[in-house]
Amino acid sequence: MLPPFCCEDWVMWIVRSLLFVLLLSPVFSLDAMWLALEEKQLLGDSQLIVRGVLDEKSISVSAESHLRTLRVKRVYKGDREAKRILFRVPSPNRPLSSNDLVFPGGQEGIWFLKEVKPGAGVYFIDHPQRFWPVEEELRLLKLLEGISAPPSKEEK
Fold it and tell me: Which numeric CATH code is attached to 39-148?
C-alpha cells in the first residue's frame, strides 16, 4: 500500500494542471470576433443611414428584444421623410452575450441600419461598424459623394 502523501501529491499535481489549462489557455475565450466591413459593403447593405439620437425609453416586444426610438436629425440614405425610427435592441432583462451591441440612451451618431423584415419599419444594427460618432459625418459625405459621382477619366 502506498503512503498517503503520494496520493495527495498526485491529486495536487492534477489540480494544478487543470487550473493552468482552464485559466491560462486562450482556447476557452468566448469573446465575439468582428470581421471588418468594407465601406462600400457597409453603405450597400444599409437600408437606412441616418444621423440621430437614441431615446432612453424602451418597449418590451419579447424576452429577447426591446424597441427604442431613434430620433432622426438627418437622412443620408433611405426614407427622406423619416423623423423617428423604431430600433430593435437586446432586452436589458436578460444576460447579454458577447455579440450584443448596446447603446446608452441619448447616444447620438450616424447609424447604418438594416431592416428586420422588408417593410416592417423596424431596424437593427448587427455590427459595431454600423455606428459612427458624429465627428465622422464628413467622412460619410465623402463616401456617398464618391459613390454617386460619375467616374473620372482615369477610372474608365
Answer: 2.40.50.120
Domain boundaries, the chain: 39-148
At 59, which helix (H) or strand (E)? strand 48-60
* Residue 141 in grid coordinates: 459625405
- In whole angstroms, what is the distance from residue 75 CA to residue 55 CA? 17
Task: Please write the tens of the pLDDT for every residue from 66-108.
Answer: 899 999 999 999 999 999 999 998 888 888 877 888 888 999 9
Rounded CA separation 50/101 (Å): 18
Cell of 26: 486562450
Cell of 138: 464628413
Phi, psi for residue 20 in degrees, rounded to 5: -60, -45
The total of other beta-carbon atoms located within 10 Å of residue 67's CB is: 16
What is each CA distance from 49 to 4, 19, 69, 98, in whole angstroms? Answer: 71, 48, 15, 25
Provide the 3-class DSSP secondary structure of residue 25. Answer: coil
pTM assigned to the model: 0.71
Exposure on the CB side of residue 130, measured as CA atoms within 13 A? 22
